């Protein structure tokens, strides 16, 4: 009987603790919540979200990028250390304070996914109006193959540049495909653009990372 | 000393885990070689959960049928589990520094894992200071930190990624050789922990029982 009472007390206590945690624990806020309930200028906030691909720019002592929750975007200027794993297109949590709609961050944490896979030696690249789509974001160092397809309605080509890399396909008619082979140096960041005049500013750019192994 | 069969099997498992984790599994696309820390961090956390399950089971049985063997099993599992929890935390910090960019942050998974370590320490202290029955109650209550730590990344916003293998989605977002290395390492850790716990139970049985707290004798009883 006493055991039963103790068990009930423990479970009840556990449920209470869980409720308290569930209501009280908000490890980070989202850009939408920041926009709806702006913090005081001197309040320290922690915001999490997805780093918008292509929004990352290096600054003298850090990086600037846009954090999104899919509803609202929050511009971030981070001063301080940046993890080598940090990249656009994946999650991040930042700490700092708001200044005129911009989050001035001094602590940047990379939220990596629960996916684990080796870097690939071959991936597909799609060219459309107006985007360069990449199948896998990270390549294996060494000889690699890009299967490039023009899935658009007008002519495109693909130019790949990076430190030690310069490769391009011929201009591809809609529906045409080409294979691009080159040596990917370890740790390189490759820029992918369409070289047809005017297509790059319309959005036909992308990046591929080479694993640093 | 003659090597025991179980000891040899456990050692073989450790060697198999080393080979699969270091040689068979490829480096990760995003994290590179650092991702190999998963093959020790995850098994350490898993066996820490298992040890608390043993503490819980031994505690429940002991509350019904108080027997010193159950206290010894609980205490041995508690000691090994506390060490494994600390190991999981330290390995997590070593992994978090280069990948997340920080040694520590009070995210729900890290916080609840510290709670779990505190529950282990409270359980062991209760056993030393207040005897087996109090320890069993503390151990059963403390076991609640295990589902809390495991569920934290599913229920709340966290920096720590959600589980890969024990994910509720039912798909495995991990390459086959990496999954093999993780499973071999987890099996090896489980076998090693079970072996160490069994040996500790035997050594506790051989040692004289710890001195009980001095009884409060009524005044004048010594005369």
UniProtKB/TrEMBL annotation, chain A:
Keyword Transit peptide attributed: no
Compartments in which it is found: Membrane
Binding positions for heme per the UniProt entry: 112, 116
Name assigned to this protein: Cytochrome c-type biogenesis protein CcmE
Keyword annotations of the record: Cytochrome c-type biogenesis, Heme, Iron, Membrane, Metal-binding, Signal-anchor, Transmembrane, Transmembrane helix
TM annotation in the entry: none
Entries under InterPro entries matching the protein: CcmE, CcmE-like_sf, Cupredoxin, NA-bd_OB-fold
Gene Ontology CC terms, in alphabetical order: plasma membrane
Gene3D superfamilies on file: Cupredoxins - blue copper proteins (2.60.40.420), Nucleic acid-binding proteins (2.40.50.140)
Entry's Gene Ontology BP terms: cytochrome complex assembly; protein-heme linkage
An MF annotation (GO) of this entry: metal ion binding
TrEMBL record, chain B:
GO CC term (a single one): plasma membrane
Pfam families tied to this protein: Cytochrom_C_asm
Membrane topology field: Multi-pass membrane protein
InterPro entries registered for this protein in UniProt: Cyt_c_assembly, Cyt_c_biogenesis_CcmC, Cyt_c_biogenesis_CcsA/CcmC
UniProt entry keywords in alphabetical sequence: Cytochrome c-type biogenesis, Membrane, Transmembrane, Transmembrane helix
A GO BP annotation: cytochrome complex assembly
Primary location group: membrane
Transmembrane segments: 39-61, 73-96, 108-127, 134-156, 176-198
Boundaries of every Cytochrome c assembly protein domain copy: 14-160
Locations listed in the record: Membrane
Any one GO molecular-function label of the UniProt entry: heme binding
Family to which this protein belongs: Belongs to the CcmC/CycZ/HelC family.
Protein name: Heme exporter protein C
Species this chain originates from: Nonomuraea wenchangensis
């Amino acid at each position: 009987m006493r055991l039963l009472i103790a068990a009930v007390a423990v479970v009840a206590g556990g449920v209470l603790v869980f409720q308290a945690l569930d209501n009280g624990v908000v490890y980070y806020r989202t850009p939408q919540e920041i926009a709806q309930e702006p913090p005081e200028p001197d309040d320290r906030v922690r915001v999490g979200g997805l780093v918008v691909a292509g929004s990352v720019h290096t600054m003298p002592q850090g990086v600037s990028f846009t954090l999104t929750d899919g509803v609202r975007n929050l511009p971030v200027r981070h001063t301080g250390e940046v993890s080598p794993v940090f990249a656009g297109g994946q999650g991040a949590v930042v700490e700092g304070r708001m200044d005129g709609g911009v989050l001035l961050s001094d602590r940047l944490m990379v939220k990596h996914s629960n996916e684990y896979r080796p870097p690939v030696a071959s991936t597909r690249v799609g060219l459309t109006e107006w985007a360069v789509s990449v199948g896998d974001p990270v390549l294996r160092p060494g000889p690699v193959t890009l299967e490039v397809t023009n899935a658009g309605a007008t002519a495109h080509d693909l130019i790949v540049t990076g430190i030690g890399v310069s490769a391009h396909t011929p201009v591809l008619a809609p529906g045409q495909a080409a294979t691009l082979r080159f040596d990917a140096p370890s740790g390189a960041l490759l820029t992918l653009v369409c070289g047809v005049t005017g297509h790059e500013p319309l959005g036909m750019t992308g990046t591929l990372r080479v694993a640093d192994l | 000393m003659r090597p025991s069969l179980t000891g040899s099997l456990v050692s073989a498992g450790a060697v198999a885990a080393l080979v699969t984790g270091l040689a068979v599994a490829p480096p990760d696309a995003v994290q590179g070689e650092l991702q190999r820390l998963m093959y020790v961090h995850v098994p350490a956390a898993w066996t820490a959960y298992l040890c608390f399950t043993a503490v819980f089971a031994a505690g429940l049985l002991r509350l019904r049928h108080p027997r010193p063997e159950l206290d010894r099993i609980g205490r041995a599992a508690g000691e090994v589990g506390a060490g494994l929890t600390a190991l999981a935390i330290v390995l997590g910090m070593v992994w978090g520094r280069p990948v997340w960019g920080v040694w520590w942050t009070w995210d729900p998974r890290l916080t609840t894992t510290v709670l779990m370590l505190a529950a282990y320490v409270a359980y062991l202290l209760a056993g030393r200071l207040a005897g087996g029955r109090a320890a069993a109650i503390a151990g059963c209550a403390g076991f609640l930190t295990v589902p809390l730590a495991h569920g934290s990344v599913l229920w709340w916003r966290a920096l720590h990624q959600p589980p890969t293998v024990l994910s509720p989605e039912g798909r495995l977002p991990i390459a086959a050789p990496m999954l093999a290395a993780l499973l071999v390492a987890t099996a090896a850790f489980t076998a090693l922990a079970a072996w160490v716990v069994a040996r500790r139970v035997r050594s506790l049985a051989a040692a004289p029982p710890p001195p009980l707290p001095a009884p409060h004798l009524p005044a004048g009883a010594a005369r």
